[in-house]
């Protein structure tokens, strides 16, 4: 149905929708985050859930203490290499459909601790990240913005066809390999199916 | 708190067998410290804790230092036979100072409200004899921090109740705070590198 006809019908008091819209509306309006934090960004996440910023306005106030009841993992803080397998395992234990927000500089790239001996250079090396929030730490408004962006992303997901999301494609795995503790680093150091380094062109100028 | 010199005199009078020396700090704060041999470290620590004038009952901080092997050249005057005649000539001698690991304890007295007193222990070298005495039996608060020093520097604390890695995982084999630690080469994605990181990023 084209947009013009829909608008016309709604002016006449006829509400039309599609199954896809209804389904995505339901999913995006009650995203349940997993209740876990890794470092100082978690404090901002907590602030976002309290009265002043009130993430409940966007339907995401039900922080679940169990990964089996959660839709969204907010990776809030520095992911150490010792913690990374546990984060991946938590994500594996979440039922599909599931989403990841990497909150803050550390979760994106390692942040100020990037060259540390025990800091993972971004959780996107092991799990697919839907939304990255920059900041150190990001303000609660930034987390709310990320949630709105995630809702837009969910609303745009088709139910059928080539571009349907992971949980609707039976042959795409919903679990990701958990890295093992090696003698010098995690093994493997990154999941090549999930993350590949972006091409950076270096010049000697500047 | 009393100065280190009279303290050391009293310590030597109380524990004649203890090998303790003062490590002078030539910098502005001039906070000198006591270096104690590892074999008498526990007795000396007990004395520091129980002495009525000191009562250093609180160990606030334990940390490690990695000292690499150093070589220094010194000019020495020696007598040598040169061209048939004995002469005094100047020769430069190279001195090798083996590397060692050091554990530093910062001690305070809660009862008397003074401190800190800095206490050091040294290992014999950095490779195979990296043992010092654990002071956890004297100050309980040293337990986790000694584990951290063990984890990051590889100092082995004899007498520690639970010497395991604390920050790194059990399977990890290296000691990341040592100066010769080589980190894993995961510099494949560096959008804004500079200095040493740029050199590493260029290898990819």
Task: Describe the protein.
The complex is a heterodimer of chains A (206) and B (204). With 206 residues, chain A is of the alpha/beta class. Chain A has a domain at 32-157: Rossmann fold (3-Layer(aba) Sandwich), CATH 3.40.50.12280. Chain A has 6 helices and 5 strands; from the N terminus they run H-H-H-E-H-E-H-E-H-E-E. Chain A is globular and about 65 Å long. Chain A starts with a helix and ends in a 19-residue tail after the last strand. The mean pLDDT of chain A is 90. Chain B has 2 domains: 4-67 and 100-165, Beta Polymerase, domain 2, CATH 3.30.460; 173-204, no CATH class. Chain B has a 5-stranded mixed beta sheet with strand order 1-2-7-6-3. A two-stranded antiparallel ribbon of chain B has the order 4-5. A two-stranded parallel sheet of chain B has the order 8-9. In chain B, a hairpin with a 4-residue loop joins strand 6 and strand 7 (114-122). The A-B interface holds A 81-82, 115, 117-118, 121, 181-185, 189-190, 197-198, 200, 202 and B 167-174, 176-177, 181, 183-184, 186, 188-191, 197, 201-202, 204.
Quick structural summary:
The complex is a heterodimer of chains A (206) and B (204). By secondary structure, chain A is an alpha/beta fold. Chain A has six helices and five strands, in the order αααβαβαβαββ.
């Amino acid at each position: 149905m084209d947009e013009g006809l829909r608008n016309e019908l709604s002016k006449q008091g006829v509400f039309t929708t599609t199954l896809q819209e209804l389904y995505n509306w339901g999913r995006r309006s009650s995203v349940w985050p997993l209740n876990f934090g890794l470092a100082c960004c978690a404090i901002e996440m907590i602030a976002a859930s309290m009265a002043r910023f009130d993430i409940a306005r966007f339907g995401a106030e039900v922080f679940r203490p169990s990964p089996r009841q959660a839709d969204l993992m907010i990776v809030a803080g520095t992911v150490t290499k010792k913690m990374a397998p546990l984060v991946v395992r938590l994500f594996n234990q979440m039922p599909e459909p599931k989403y990841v927000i990497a909150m803050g500089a550390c979760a994106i790239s390692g942040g100020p601790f990037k060259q540390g001996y025990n800091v993972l250079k971004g959780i996107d090396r092991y799990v697919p990240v839907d939304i990255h929030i920059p900041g150190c730490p990001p303000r609660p408004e930034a987390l709310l913005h990320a949630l709105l962006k995630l809702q837009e992303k969910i609303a745009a997901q088709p139910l059928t066809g080539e571009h349907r999301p992971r949980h609707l494609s039976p042959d795409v795995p919903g679990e990701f390999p958990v890295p093992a503790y090696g003698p010098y680093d995690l093994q493997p150091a990154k999941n090549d199916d999930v993350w590949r380094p972006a091409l950076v062109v270096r010049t000697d100028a500047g | 708190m009393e100065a280190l010199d009279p303290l050391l005199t009293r310590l030597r009078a109380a524990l004649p067998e203890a090998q303790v020396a003062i490590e002078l700090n030539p910098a502005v704060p001039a906070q000198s410290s006591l270096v104690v041999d590892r074999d008498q470290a526990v007795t000396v620590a007990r004395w520091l804790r129980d002495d009525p004038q000191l009562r250093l009952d609180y160990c606030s901080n334990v940390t490690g230092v990695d000292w690499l092997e150093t070589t220094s050249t010194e000019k020495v005057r020696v007598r040598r036979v040169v061209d048939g005649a004995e002469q005094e000539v100047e020769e430069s001698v190279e001195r090798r100072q083996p590397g060692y690991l050091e554990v530093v304890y910062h001690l305070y007295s809660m009862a008397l409200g003074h401190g800190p007193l800095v206490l050091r222990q040294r290992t014999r070298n950095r490779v195979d004899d990296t043992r010092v005495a654990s002071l956890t039996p004297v100050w309980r608060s040293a337990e986790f921090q000694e584990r951290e020093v063990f984890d990051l520097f590889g100092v082995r604390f004899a007498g520690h109740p639970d010497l395991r890695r604390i920050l790194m995982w059990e399977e990890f084999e290296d000691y990341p705070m040592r100066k010769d630690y080589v980190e894993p080469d995961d510099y494949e994605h560096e959008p804004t590198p500079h200095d040493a990181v740029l050199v590493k990023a260029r290898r990819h």
